[in-house]
Design a protein that fits this description.
7 helices; single chain; mainly alpha; about 180 residues
């Protein structure tokens, strides 16, 4: 049953994100101050997602360098920072609670499902998982003998189209600005 929900969660996570965005816009009551404070989480989240996307070679190799030496899921951690930054900007406890439920119900099973895939696809995953936390990062990077230099690749960043996260964040800030201007 858990495996089935993991598959379902993977398929519905993006559509659920759009549904949540509509709910967010309806419930948000931002102020200039809350929007500015949200940058404390949103900017590092955007940076982390961009940085991680320049390292990961999805389904081709087990990435253990760059941000993946600190946390097994830097892309999801970045997404959480961005999401909770915007939740703080909304000044709505309902938004924060709905977001927490959404992450628990959708992203926890997705992460577990992806880990099951990685466990079967890459022999070194168990050693990696034993050394690197699932979500909250280590203070120092884990080192793996078999890992290459693992330098950031702008080509990978472009391939993964991670610039869309920045475009999306700008769009959300534009909507928040309109809410501040016209609904306060």
């Amino acid at each position: 049953m858990a495996a089935d929900w993991g598959r379902i969660a993977r398929r519905i996570r993006v559509p659920m994100g759009f549904v949540f965005a509509v709910v967010y816009i309806l419930l948000a009551r931002p102020t200039i101050a809350s929007a500015m404070w949200s940058l404390v989480l949103v900017v590092p989240g955007l940076w982390l997602r961009a940085y991680a996307s320049g390292y990961v070679k999805k389904n081709a190799e087990l990435t253990v360098t760059g941000p993946y030496a600190y946390t097994r899921n830097p892309l999801y951690l970045g997404s959480m920072l961005i999401a909770f930054g915007f939740a703080a900007a909304s000044r709505s406890i309902v938004v924060v609670l709905l977001l927490a439920v959404l992450f628990a119900v959708i992203y926890v099973p997705v992460i577990r499902s992806e880990e099951n895939f990685l466990r079967g696809a890459f022999a070194g995953f168990e050693a990696y998982a034993a050394s690197v936390p699932r979500l909250l990062p280590r203070l120092r990077p884990a080192r793996f003998r078999e890992a290459g230099a693992g330098e950031f690749s702008l080509a990978l960043y472009r391939k993964h189209r991670e610039y869309n996260a920045l475009i999306g964040a700008a769009a959300i800030y534009a909507v928040l600005a309109l809410r501040i201007i016209y609904f306060h």
